[in-house]
Design goal:
The chain is α/β, with parallel strands linked by helices. Helices cover about 20% and strands about 25% of the residues. It has five helices and 15 strands. It has a three-stranded mixed sheet, covered by helices on one side. It has a three-stranded mixed sheet with strand order 3-4-5, covered by helices on one side. A three-stranded mixed sheet has the order 6-7-8, with helices on one face. The longest helix has 17 residues, at about 30-45. It is globular and about 40 Å long.
């Protein structure tokens, strides 16, 4: 069963960490409504949604993708690159241990799930201020035990690797290639984001549907030209918290 683990938007979201965008006022009522619509779309597309309770003292806790990487065989719990966010991990670990055995990356290694792009048995990991070489090394050892091949990819222009590039299926990557060392990702077809929409490299794929931010219509048109089915979603208020579409869920198969 396809399962999507999410978490209710924190009342403290207005105090979220920001690295590459300017802080703007967040309408919390609208942000929560957009997150509910996101969860509803996940269900519509066939995922069972497990919504974890709000953590009102942890502003970024909605971004459940960062504290854990869920592979078919194991869930790897990570020390986040921002110390203030490290309290998010224990509750994610507790929620995941029903579905996967757990493994851990340990400090001084740091790693965030937003930097981890898995395509079958190949995993690309962004080398960023949030995910350091030691964290990537430890992750590669754990993942390698299960036959995964891990490649580090330096990122310079954005928060995480998946802020710049995501996999759409059909051997195709959507990307802003100015923001990362894209030549380390060989053998793929590319859809480059429309230049006026530099933040449009993040898409969420569920089955045969590409879920995509409504705020990037020009890039959406480029994706549709390649015959992908695109479902647009308004996350404009959440984007003020440096949100993409992948970061607000942990998507995995489960028999439970």
């Amino acid at each position: 069963m396809l399962t999507a683990m999410t978490r209710t938007v924190s009342a403290a979201l207005v105090n979220c960490e920001l690295s590459f965008i300017d802080r703007k006022p967040i309408d919390m009522e609208k942000a929560r409504a957009q997150h509910h619509a996101y969860e509803a779309l996940l269900e519509k597309l066939g995922a069972r949604v497990i919504s974890l309770p709000e953590q009102p003292d942890l502003p970024d806790s909605m971004f459940v993708e960062d504290p854990a990487i869920v592979l078919d065989e194991v869930a790897i719990i990570c020390p986040l690159g921002t110390e203030a966010r490290r309290k998010e991990a224990p509750s994610i670990a507790a929620a995941l241990e029903k579905y996967r055995k757990l493994a851990y990356v340990r400090l001084p290694g740091t790693l965030e799930g937003g930097d981890v792009l898995r395509i079958g048995k190949k995993i690309f990991v962004g080398l960023t201020p949030r995910s350091n070489p030691e964290g990537i090394r430890q992750f590669a050892v754990i993942a390698g035990t299960y036959g995964y091949d891990v490649t580090a990819v330096p990122v310079t222009g954005c928060l995480h690797l998946k802020s710049a590039v995501t996999y759409l299926g059909k051997n195709t990557l959507l990307a802003n290639r100015a923001w990362f060392a894209w030549k380390r990702m060989e053998g793929f077809e590319w859809i480059d984001v429309q230049p006026a929409e530099p933040h449009a490299g993040n898409a969420l794929v569920i089955k045969d549907t590409v879920v995509f931010p409504a705020s990037f219509p020009r890039t959406a048109a480029l994706i549709k030209e390649k015959r992908f089915h695109v479902e647009l979603l308004d996350i404009s208020e959440l984007q003020k918290a440096e949100s993409g579409l992948t970061c607000s869920n942990l998507l995995f198969e489960s028999s439970a």
